[in-house]
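stage 2 :: seqdesign
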C-alpha cells in the first residue's frame, strides 16, 4: 500500500505547503492521502501499515524542488531519535526521527520525500508567490510516482490558496 502525506504548519506561511498540497490531492489520486500537519510521534500510527510513503514538505534545499529517498541506519539513528524525544518531547522530533522509529519494526518501507524550498517561514497563513510556484512543481514531480490528473490537482491547489488569501 502507498500513501502521500503532507507535512507542515499552515500558520507559518511557506511551511504549510505540504499540507495544502495534500488537501488538493485528497480524493483525486488513486491512493491514500493524509494531511499530517506538524506531525509528532503519533503519526506513526497513521502510516505504519504502508509499504511506500511519499512525504511532501517544505525543506532547506538548494533548488526549488528536490526528490530524495530516506534511508535510516537503525543502529546509529534509533539512539538519536530516542534522545530527541527525551529532551524535547515528541512534538520537537524531526521527521527523520519519526521515520527512524517507524522503521524500527523491521518492515522494509520505501520512503520518498519531495521537498519544496520555502521563501518565508514566519507567522502567517498562506503561501508566498515563490512557494506557490514550487507547490505546482511538486505536483508535477509527484506524477513520477502516481498516475493522476496533474492539471486538476494544480487547479485544486491554486483554488485552496486563493480561498485562503481572500479570507486573510
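stage 2 :: out
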Amino acid at each position: 500500500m502507498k500513501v502521500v502525506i503532507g507535512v507542515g504548519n499552515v500558520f507559518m506561511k511557506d511551511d504549510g505547503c505540504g499540507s495544502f498540497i495534500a488537501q488538493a490531492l485528497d480524493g483525486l489520486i488513486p491512493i491514500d492521502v493524509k494531511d499530517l500537519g506538524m506531525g509528532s510521534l503519533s503519526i506513526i500510527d497513521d502510516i505504519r501499515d504502508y509499504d511506500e510513503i511519499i512525504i511532501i514538505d517544505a525543506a532547506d534545499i538548494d533548488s526549488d524542488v528536490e526528490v530524495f529517498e530516506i534511508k535510516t541506519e537503525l543502529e546509529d539513528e534509533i539512539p538519536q531519535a530516542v534522545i530527541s524525544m527525551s529532551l524535547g518531547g515528541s512534538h520537537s522530533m524531526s521527521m527523520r526521527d519519526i521515520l527512524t522509529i517507524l522503521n524500527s519494526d523491521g518492515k522494509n518501507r520505501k520512503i520518498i520525500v519531495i521537498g519544496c524550498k520555502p521563501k518565508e517561514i514566519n507567522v502567517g497563513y498562506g503561501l508566498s508567490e515563490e512557494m506557490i510556484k514550487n507547490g505546482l512543481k511538486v505536483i508535477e514531480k509527484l506524477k513520477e510516482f502516481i498516475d493522476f490528473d496533474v492539471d486538476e490537482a494544480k487547479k485544486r491547489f491554486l483554488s485552496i490558496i486563493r480561498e485562503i488569501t481572500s479570507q486573510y
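stage 3 :: structure notes
- The mean pLDDT is 82.
- The longest helix spans residues 150-167.
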